[in-house]
Design brief:
This protein has 18 helices and twelve strands. It is an alpha/beta fold and 417 residues long. The chain has two domains: 270 residues, Type I PLP-dependent aspartate aminotransferase-like (Major domain) (Aspartate Aminotransferase, domain 2), CATH 3.40.640.10; 133 residues, Aspartate Aminotransferase, domain 1, CATH 3.90.1150.10. A seven-stranded mixed sheet has the order 1-7-6-5-4-2-3, with helices on both faces. Strands 8-9-12-11-10 form a five-stranded mixed sheet. β4, α8 and β5 form a beta-alpha-beta unit. It binds pyridoxal-5'-phosphate. The site of pyridoxal-5'-phosphate (PLP) has 17 residues, from α5 and α6.
Length: 417
C-alpha cells in the first residue's frame, strides 16, 4: 500500500494511506492491548534501548496499534511522522513543550480553544514561558510582536469559538522570516478542509476527539511533523543532538524520546483503533457537516429572532474570502449565533429537541452549548470579549442528520422563544 500512497487522492488516502495488511489478512488494525513487549534475550532488549534495533518496548513509548494510526495520520497530512496522544490538549502541551524552554516566548493567536488559552496564559507562565496574544487578523501586529525570545507561532485554522479564519500562509511567511516554527491547530477545519502543511504549517496538532473520530466515542490527539522546519538553528540549541542524529526528523525524535516519554500522555490502543475507524469516513461526514452547516447558517441568518450568525461560509462573513480560498469553498461544521440576550440563548437551548446540549464538537449529532456560562465561564469579561464569547452567543456543531430535521428543530425552538 505504501507504494501507491503517493498517487492517492485525499478521500482514498483517508482509507488506505499509511496502512499495512494486518495478520491473518485482517483488514483492520489489531488492537494490541498490551502494556509491554517481551524479548527472548537480554541482548535484544539492550539493542532496543540503545537504539541499535527498532521494536516495541512499552506502550507509553510505542505500541503497534498507536503506530498504525500515526502512519495513517502522517499520510493524510502529508507529514513525515506523527505521534498520537491521550487527548488534543496532550498533543498541544507535548508539542509546545518540545519546542519552548523557560525564558522563551510563544506568539499566539488570541482566538483560541479555552484549554489552549489557559495552558498558554496560566500554566506555562508558571514555568517561565510567556505567551503574547495577538489578533490573528492583524498580520502587522503579529509581525511586530516577534522578538528575540520568540520560539513558536501558534494559530488555529478556524478559531473556536470565535469562528474567525486567519490567513495561515501569511502566518507561515512571518514564522519563516522569523526563523521559528509555525504550529497549527487544525481541529475545527480537519484535514478535509485543508492540508495545512501546504499552507506552511511546520507542526500540525489535532484533537482527534472531534471530527476525526467523528462519533464521540473516545478522546485523542495527534502531532504531525511536516518535516519542513530547519532545526539546525542557534535559536534551538536543545535540538542540536537530535538534529545531528535525525536531521529533519529532529522534532519528532526530541518529542518522542524526551517530552512525550516523560510527560507520558500516551493514547490507549483501543482509542487509537476507534480514531482510525473515524478517519475512514472523515471526507463523507465532513461533506455533510459542511452542507448542513451552510443550510442552517442561511436559515438562522434570515430569522427575525436571530441577531447575527457567525459562519465563514456566509457571503457577508468578514472571513468568507480567506476561508473560501484557503478551504476551497468548504467552511466546516461549526457556527455561532447571537440572540437578544442570555435568557433567550438559554430558552433556545432548552427548546431544542434534536440538538444535544453538551461540551463537544464534531459528533454525528448536532450539538449546542452556551460558552459564556460553561466552557468559558472562568474567563473575565475582557478575555471573553477577546475570544468573541458574549452572553447571547450559542455555539452549534452541526451534525450529519437530515438538514431539514436540524432546521426544523431550530425553527420550532426559535418560534417558542
Ligand atoms: C477540543 C479542542 C482541543 C482539545 O482537545 P481535547 O481532545 O478535548 O483535549 C484543542 N483545540 C481545539 C480547537 C479543540 O476544539
Amino acid at each position: 500500500m505504501g507504494e501507491t500512497a503517493t498517487g492517492m487522492r485525499f478521500d482514498t488516502k483517508l482509507i488506505h494511506g499509511g496502512t499495512a495488511p494486518g495478520p491473518y489478512g485482517a483488514t483492520k488494525t489489531p488492537i494490541i492491548q498490551s502494556s509491554a513487549f517481551a524479548y527472548d534475550t537480554a541482548e535484544e532488549l539492550e539493542d532496543l534501548f540503545k537504539g541499535r534495533a527498532i521494536g516495541q518496548v512499552y506502550t507509553r513509548i510505542g505500541n503497534p496499534t498507536l503506530e498504525a494510526l500515526e502512519k495513517r495520520l502522517a499520510a493524510v497530512e502529508d507529514g513525515i511522522a506523527a505521534i498520537v496522544t491521550a487527548s488534543g490538549m496532550a498533543a498541544i502541551t507535548t508539542a509546545v513543550m518540545a519546542i519552548v524552554r523557560s525564558g522563551d516566548e510563544i506568539l499566539s493567536s488570541a482566538s483560541l480553544f479555552g484549554g489552549t488559552y489557559s495552558l498558554f496564559r496560566d500554566t506555562l507562565a508558571n514555568y517561565g514561558i510567556t505567551t503574547r496574544f495577538v489578533d490573528p487578523t492583524d498580520l502587522d501586529a503579529l509581525a511586530a510582536a516577534v522578538n528575540d525570545a520568540t520560539r513558536l507561532i501558534f494559530v488555529e485554522t478556524i478559531g473556536n469559538p470565535k469562528m474567525d479564519v486567519p490567513d495561515i500562509a501569511a502566518f507561515a511567511a512571518i514564522a519563516q522570516k522569523s526563523g521559528v516554527p509555525l504550529m497549527v491547530d487544525a481541529t475545527v477545519s480537519t484535514p478535509y478542509l485543508a492540508r495545512v502543511k501546504e499552507l506552511g504549517a511546520d507542526i500540525v496538532v489535532h484533537s482527534t476527539s472531534k471530527f476525526i473520530n467523528g462519533t464521540a466515542n473516545s478522546i485523542g490527539g495527534a502531532i504531525i511533523d511536516s518535516g519542513s522546519f530547519d532545526w539546525n538553528s542557534a535559536k534551538f540549541p536543545h535540538f542540536e543532538p537530535f538534529y545531528r542524529k535525525y536531521r529533519n526528523f529532529a522534532f519528532t525524535a526530541r518529542t518522542r524520546k524526551l517530552i512525550h516519554k516523560d510527560f507520558g500522555a500516551c493514547a490507549a490502543p483501543l482509542n487509537a483503533f476507534l480514531v482510525g475507524e473515524g478517519l475512514e469516513t472523515l471526507a463523507l461526514r465532513m461533506e455533510r457537516h459542511c452542507a448542513n452547516a451552510l443550510k442552517l447558517a442561511g436559515f438562522l441568518a434570515a430569522h427575525e429572532k436571530v441577531a447575527w450568525v457567525n459562519y465563514p461560509g456566509l457571503p457577508d462573513s468578514p472571513f468568507f474570502e480567506v476561508a473560501n480560498r484557503q478551504f476551497q469553498g468548504r467552511f466546516g461544521g461549526v457556527l455561532t449565533l447571537g440572540l437578544a440576550d442570555k435568557p433567550s440563548a438559554f430558552r433556545l437551548i432548552n427548546g431544542l429537541k434534536l440538538a444535544k446540549n453538551l461540551a463537544n464538537i464534531g459528533d454525528t449529532k448536532t450539538l449546542v452549548i452556551h460558552p459564556a456560562s460553561t466552557i468559558c465561564a472562568d474567563y473575565s469579561l475582557e478575555v471573553k470579549a477577546l475570544m468573541g464569547v458574549s452572553e447571547e452567543l450559542v455555539r452549534v456543531s452541526v451534525g450529519i442528520e437530515d438538514a431539514r430535521d436540524i432546521v426544523a428543530d431550530f425553527a420550532r425552538a426559535l418560534d417558542n422563544l
